[in-house]
Amino acid sequence: MTEWDVKKLRILRTLRDRGTVTATAEALLMTPSAVSQQLTNLAKQLGVELLEPQGRRVRLTDAAHLVLRHAEAVFAQLERADAELTGYLRGEAGEVRVGAFSTAVPALVVPAVRLLRAEDRPGPDVRVREAEAAQAYELLTAGEVDLALSLAAHAPTARDPRFSLFPLLADPLDVALPVGHPLADAPALRLADLAADRWIFGGSGPWSEITTAACEAAGFVPEQAHSAAGWTAILALVEAGMGIALVPRMASREQRPAAVVMRVLEADQPRRHVVAAVRHGAESGPAVARVLSALSRVAGAFS
């Protein structure tokens, strides 16, 4: 029978995800030579070539991809076993490390923790790590968090065997206007009405993509006046009359200067979609399942 070494299989999967031996070594806190040696040993154990040269790098062979397809099922089963064992040893009050982007922490994570604390039975010990939405799947893969909140725009396909995804919330995007803007009180405001305005959004990344996609769907390309990523900075620029911005309702509920008017775009209905993700199989763990349930209840109330 072929010998399957889980540790070496994880190294092979990391190489697939990271692309180079050097990046794999950095992610796993190993030396490049140790990574190469482990993969050479795995190839000998399995009796197939796993890597082939590609210029100054290496790439996975078809046999390596075949091995990883089956290995993903093994990883998921190990996650389920670990979740069940944790539930057996700790009950439902185990530790759950949650990675969440900035606006999700006060809007979703904190209320979910309050719900868990209000229950009669002991709840999980939730440890929060603020991280960019784009980091969610790297943190999950590295085992640095157990559950991550991200945006659907960053999510892998539903067929990715590494993760289980749970849609939580369609967060409406409202437009922030300075008090005194000619359309601040206009009835039935639409995005197209603001095509000639100067806009504020990040120079790159998800918020740039979300803003430009919403405006393009309304029939225009927004003129970027200023580049900012944090909501405090964006709303301060709007308040100063330096431009307008799309702002997710999750963010505007937490902070909004008095001199900023938030208008709902009922006809356009732009949204960003928030999802929760865990490593495939981990959702069966009692503690993770309780946190997911609490997040779903908070998201439902938010809607």
UniProtKB/TrEMBL annotation:
GO terms for cellular component: protein-DNA complex. CDD domains: HTH_ARSR, PBP2_LTTR_like_6. InterPro entries: ArsR-like_HTH, LysR_HTH_N, LysR_subst-bd, WH-like_DNA-bd_sf, WH_DNA-bd_sf. GO terms for molecular function: DNA binding; DNA-binding transcription factor activity. Gene3D superfamilies: Periplasmic binding protein-like II, Winged helix-like DNA-binding domain superfamily/Winged helix DNA-binding domain. Residues 4-61 form the HTH lysR-type domain. It comes from the Bacteria. Keywords: DNA-binding, Transcription, Transcription regulation. Belongs to the LysR transcriptional regulatory family. This is LysR family transcriptional regulator.
